[in-house]
Amino acid sequence: MRRWPSVCAALQGVLVVIAGGSVVACGALADQVTLAYDFGQVLQGKTVSHVFALTNSDAESLTITSVRTSCSACTATVLSNKTIKPGEAARVEVSVDTSGYEGRITKVVELGTDDPKRPGIRLEVSATVVPEVRVVPKEVFLGAIVQGDSTELPIDLRPGAAKQFKVLGVKTACAFLATECKPGPGAGATDEPLYVVTVRLLPKAPIGRFFEKVVVEADCPVKPRLVIPIRGQVVGAISAEPAVFSFGSVAQGQASTRTILVRKVGAPTLKVLSAKTDAESLETEVKEVERGRQYEVGVRLKAGAPPGRIASKIRIETNDKDQPVLECSVYGVIMDRQEQKP
Asked: What is the pLDDT of residues 203-220, one digit of tens each?
């Protein structure tokens, strides 16, 4: 009976040192389904490699038919012939790029073979990735900010593998973000920041979501550029809520109304000029609630609306030059009278 290739679990044979410093042992072997290797602590930004030796202990040849990895940061290469003769070993090198990771990681490689009883074997490599500089937080979320307002958030640059480092510069390509870097209280302290970078959103930021980045340049030999994602959303002073609503399933001829609340923060200068929709089954009405600040837009089903689905927009026009039009989505189903009969 064909037996699955196996890997030494202990150093029982001749030690072979390969490129990158990994060690493979060959000797008396036992069948395994999952084979694992731990790199231990690895400096962030390094690519580490290990070679697994798979020995065919059967009397028949066996072929590796496929190699799959768990992500793009992990690669696997069969260094030897993919067909393993009896008594011979295949060598599979697994490499991991640690640039985008911090802390404990595990990557998986799945090998497929022509053995119908055990068509696959799982190779696992693990590591504890330690950055030269710890960035806290790793990603900045500024939240929702009303257009014209400003907000800021500090980012700590703390010692990692590099107990001392020097920031050479901080920059961003975003026109509505500003940065400032100052020394922190961490000189001589273990876990205190050596530097504090402040990211500030400027009042000129346009309405909408933003996904930007700040780049910190330091004198670290492995990873001299630290890229910090900055995201958030600038909202207008005028809001229309709910932005999406539904009538649900409504019987034909049944009256139903939904209300959109339009509000403005800041100076009371708001005026809703109109509310329109392309849906023939809907009609709208604008009502002022608080002068210059708040309006209600009523959306009603017409009495003679035909059966069918509703999927439309409510277009609200205002006197505001920055937000002249607000849109809300409306959905629903008007059921035919015949469909309502039991």
From this structure: 999 989 999 999 999 999
